[in-house]
Amino acid sequence: MDDSDRKWALFWRHWLGVMVRLILSGLLLNGNARATEFDEYTVKAAYLYNFAKYVEWPPEVFVKTDTPLLICIVGKNPFDGALEMLAGKMVNSHPVEVRSVLATANLGRCQVVFIARTEQSRLNTILKNMDSQPVLTVSDISNFAEAGGMIGLIEIEQRIRFDINMAATDRARLKLSSQLLKLARIVLNSSKMN
Amino acid sequence: MVAPVMATTPDLTQLSIEELMNVSVVSPTRQAQRLSDTASAVFVITQEEIRRSGVTNIPDALRLAPGVQVARIDANKWAVSIRGFNGRFANKLLVLVDGRSIYTPTFAGVYWEIQDLLLEDIERIEVIRGPGASLWGANAVNGVINIITKLAKDTSDLVSMTAGSPENTIVGVRHSGHLGEDAHYRVYGKYLKQGNLLDEQGRDANDDWHLSSGGFRLDWTPSGQNDFSLQGNLFVGTLNQDLTVPILNSPYQQRLHDERQDSGGYLQGRWEHTFSATSNLDLKFYYQREKHSDSSLLQLTLDTFDLELQHTFTLNEHNALIWGLGYRDYRDRYPGAQLGTITPPTLNYDLFSGFVQDQISLIPKILDFTLGARLEHNDFTGWEFQPNARLRWTPHPQHHLWAAVSRAVRTPSRVDNGVALNALTVPPGTSQNPLPLPGLLVLQGNPAFGSEKLTAYELGYRVLPSERLSLDITAFYNDYDDLRAIAIREDLATVVADGYIQVPGLFINASRGHTYGLETVVNWQLEDWWRLQLAYSYLQADLENKPGFSNAIPAMRDNSLPHHQISLRSSFDIRHDLEFDLWFYYVDKLSDLVVISPTLTASVDGYFSMNARLGWRPHPDWELSLVGTNLLRPSHIEFIQEVYPSPGQIERSVHAQLKWSF
Q1: Which residues of A touch B18 (CB under 8 A)?
Q2: Do residues B188 and B215 touch, judged by C-beta distance below 8 A?
Q3: Total number of domains constituting chain A
């Protein structure tokens, strides 16, 4: 197929789609609708980015308005490049940086820590080492929020949902927006935890 | 082909959390079974496709796969087959649910109506066209259908309600939870009630039915190396049907109302042990009971015990091996009914098998060769050997070519072996029966009936020109021998004191021939929010009776199958919470079905059908959908059952569904 053919094919595909969509949806158009199935970790990476937007860290965490927001991955990186794509994106004026770190490193430097499934057996130690530091912990290890983590990602019906442990976020002095709490599957409150 | 997974990483960070919650994901474990890598004609129906098709039962879900012939006979019966030989008692298909065979050895087919899973529990249905005998066992002649349910940890609490017209009520309730950190469970209950459809003349077909079932699944992973799972289910139901049965005085046939009480259940356990990343052991057992009490046709109680072991390991960089052993024990009881008996009325028979398959990598990632065989022993025909050889060539990452030669057998069923069924009265003084007494055709099983044999040749090509487009084409040539036919033994006719002539119709391996065809699927993801799928299958048969059996009634004739089938589906997302699906399909006419009726033939017109679904998710936990099926015509006939025909008209229908998962 030469170049002009391809352009025509793209043109028709695009306009055919646009036309059908217009007929069907009238003014309800929304460019973000998706029928595709996506890779699990591409979606989880997008969740991490969204979580960062809905969390307020204590003021001393960001020295300057453009201090980077550091997302750290503990354990074997399951994202296959999807998380690294977040690098350079902005979360309120803070550029995102992504790093793989060792479980034994000082995780207090990170603002978000994603704990991979490979660390399941060491989970308690990792969480204990970070206790009360203003770091948002996220993982897809099962029952993560119940085990003392902050946001546990779970897959239900081929869709990703999340649990929130507010006792843990309160201890770490992180403020989660009400929108996030509203959408969480389970919210474990301080009262329940104590 | 599997639903296309984006090959490059798209940027989803633009999406809000609500939108992300609506995105479906494929996990790497499922992705690991890359279909483009298999050297056979596989199609996977995903949970997402089932949901978006709006179907409410498994046979209708199978219409989503290319090359599968699905026809609804009446409200509670379906005919399902692959590559021809379709019928209510179609016998060349192996169907498994989580590895448990739901194929009944009574007639070597499937009672589709009692396979009453919660559709929401299904993770995927793998449809393998062509023989799968060496891996899956005897009777995987024309294909294998593998229904795989979700792990307990992947299901949530759910309430699902369906209501439609003609009456179609389905209520499903599911609860999931975990016991400690390593064990997850779900329990579910389901109630289904469907009303009468219409018969040929437009009257009530008296085929309403209801079924209640409940079950559980428990998955326990005490360590990374061991996975245990236990599943069980119990069901009970009542199914009504009208049968056209023979009588001995004019008009020599009558409509008989029949009520069938079905019950049963199963318990199934599995242990998977991982020795290392390249070695894995799988041990499975199940016990299954089914009981059909049907006053006129057949009564049956069947118990099945099954034990299977499978070991998968990589021997070295060139050889990936799977071997396994299986043992199955059947115990059945046929108390006898008005129209038929089975001899002997109780029997205990078993099946031993062993198989081995080696996937040999000739040029890594480019060329490999798979050689496999199964040796199986059954109590009817003794040893059966079913080998196959497959070659896969990937000249370019986007192009996959494969070829296969396999042998498979369909072993005799209890019906083939020992049934006696009053099938038809031939009126006196007709060309078929010039005598003054009516002739009663009694179908008779034959202890000498042997296996039906198939040698299949397949060729396949898959191409993925872009991450949004895929094309899959398979061509096959099936060479059959010793196919079942019914020999009318006028020489053995006897005059019975009641004043009729009893003519035996003996099951005999008297037919042979070949079928060939082409199956193709195109998947096109036009936009992230719009997907099209086009499937077309072409099917031909050329069958004959063997010399000396020219009068025998074959199981299938050249025009008993739909030569053309077309399906076009569109999955369209109007907004992130609003889905619109359209599905057109065409099934060619069946101009010469084999039916045990005075003319021995019947025909069904070809039909176009259209289904539409509108789905709305006002909240990630809620889904409301409205589905219309067979919208183009008020009603149509899809199939005529091979014995006691009483065709039902499949009506236009509408149903609404509400799902709440939490």
Answers
A1: 183
A2: yes
A3: 2
Which two tokens mark B531?
């997907």
Chain B from 42 to 101: CB within 8 A of any A CB = 46-48
Spell out which residues of chain B touch residue A117, defining contact as CB-CB under 8 Å: none
Interface touch A39/B16, C-beta < 8 Å: no
> Computed from CA positions of residues B237, B240, B243, B248, in that sequence, does the dihedral angle turn out positive or negative?
positive
Distance from CA of B155 to the nearest CA of A (A): 6
Query: CA distances (Å), B547 to each of A45, B405, B552, in order?
Result: 68, 28, 10
Contact between B564 and B538 under an 8 Å Cβ cutoff? The reply is yes
Say whether both A17 and A80 belong to one domain. Answer: no
CATH number for the domain including A132?
A: 3.40.50.2300
Residues of A with Cβ-Cβ distance to B573 under 8 angstroms: 33-35
Q: What are phi and psi of B66, to 5 degrees?
A: -70, 150
Residues of A in contact with B27 (CB under 8 A): 40, 155
| DSSP bridge pairs for B346 | B333
Host domain of residue A12? 1-33
Interface-testing mutation among A34, A69, A159, with chain B (most B C-beta atoms within 10 A): A34
Between chains, do A156 and B661 touch, taking CB under 8 Å as contact? yes
What's the CA gap between B630 and B63, in Å, rounded?
13
Nearest to B582 by CA among A7, A20, A27: A20
Indicate the number of domains in chain B: 1
Is B82 a domain residue?
yes
CB-based contacts of B277: which residues, under 8 Å, 6+ apart? none
Tell me which residue in B156, B573, B575 faces A157 most closely, judged by beta carbons. Answer: B156
Give the CA count within 13 Å in the CB-facing half-sphere of B315: 11
8 A C-beta contact, residue B502 and residue B496: yes
Q: Give the pLDDT band (50/70/90) at residue A132.
A: confident
pLDDT confidence bin for A34, thresholds 50/70/90:
very low
Pairwise CB contact (< 8 Å): B24 & A30: no
Please state the pTM of the whole predicted model. Answer: 0.81
The alpha-carbon gap from A55 to the nearest alpha carbon of chain B, in Å, equals 13
The reply to whether B18 touches chain A by the CB within 8 Å rule is: yes
Which residues of chain B lie closer than 8 angstroms to A34, CB-CB?
19, 22-23, 528-529, 573, 576
pLDDT in tens, B28-46: 333 334 455 678 888 889 8
A23 plus A59 within the same structural domain: no
First to last CA, chain A: 67
Q: Are strands B367-378 and B382-396 parallel, antiparallel or unpaired?
A: antiparallel
Q: Identify whether residues A131 and A167 lie together within a single domain.
A: yes
Q: State phi, psi for A28 to the nearest 5 degrees.
A: -85, 10
Determine whether the interchain pair A46/B526 forms a contact, defined as Cβ–Cβ distance below 8 Å: no
Identify any residues that bridge with B582 across adjacent strands, giving them in sequence order: B570, B612
pLDDT higher than 50, residue B415: yes
CA B476, CA B463: separation in Å to the nearest integer?
A: 18
Query: What is the rounded average pLDDT of the residues B467-480?
Result: 92
